[in-house]
């Protein structure tokens, strides 16, 4: 699906945003971040290449005129058009695919990943790759690779069903290679992973510089999600090998990497990124858009805001709240935020957990709110229970609203909070409950922490600085004049005004 939303300004620098499951088709923190960038730069011309589900998703954001086009790149839905190659072209493509698979599974073959990837990209745009990967021959190639002597995956005795499953998952993951890559300006991938594929191709074929921003660590989140996946180890070995080598290729070839926190740079450096090409650029908020929330609710209330998703680990939050209720029976937990499509079963599981713990109406799933500030004002303490985060908007927005927070120590949370909130280990309900009880028992401390949190936001995380930072990066990368920053140099962050969705 292509959406025309205006026209680029004549002569304006051109930026292609590369997204996956976020802007402009869904809400959430990364989407807010994308919107604030394009809204803050009316002098630049933007295109969005969005990896989506089936390509029929409606726009969730009103696009400003500087977003000239949205190209939807569906991973699922109907198979891409094209026909399988024949003869010599088939042999060449299957040879490249064999090298590609060998790189995923054999550490001695990893250097072949990049060259094979770009051969697959050319075949994808010719309409050959997807049909080829849906063929029996592709399944046989994979079976042959992972049964090579000496490979660890061979010991797991992969089956034909494993080969069919892994081949199908790879075919879907590689579909973005069929998109026409950027030819001018700058490509800006707003996460790692498959959204980067058109950007890597644009760099390889047309020399378009690639900028990477990681809010969370995409590779780490794939490791977390595949721990609980239904696939057998041979399938997971293929997919995790792909995501690992794709991350490495991206880190090595990006002109600049701008993680949303310093924690992410550890993964990026380990993945092969040049430390001199990593510059931390924090998210932040406009303190005028998120003013102090005013008086706390009458009773002891905890509030949480975000999307209902396993990465947010709401089970730990609910279990921690059950421990709080044992000592503060009047306590309530109010949870604000939508449930993404496909996440209904997780929400039902969380609701059932609350019922099984006897929490009854003390836990409320309240859905999306028109004004996200209401979610923060609803609590005496604002919670964050995630097992993975970047530099979370919900946390710094709550801080700007002057609320004390209890958060898990993941991603850039500790960098955001400093000493203005309590930070606890992830997946530890008892530690979270003890932190909450400490704050509920000490209203003066809560108030002091809330005031300090707002001051921290005002001093360190502002909208204008980050928009100006990225504008300068875009213009210099497009002109070929960008100079390496000092390793580890942070820049202040940005955020939009009040939102209608938590996420």
TrEMBL record:
Q: Which InterPro entries match?
A: DUF3492, PelF-like
Q: Which residues form a coiled coil?
A: none
Segments forming domain DUF3492: 14-275
Taxonomically, which superkingdom? Bacteria
Q: Which PANTHER family match?
A: BLL3647 PROTEIN, GLYCOSYLTRANSFERASE
Name of protein: D-inositol 3-phosphate glycosyltransferase
From which source organism is this entry? Streptomyces lichenis
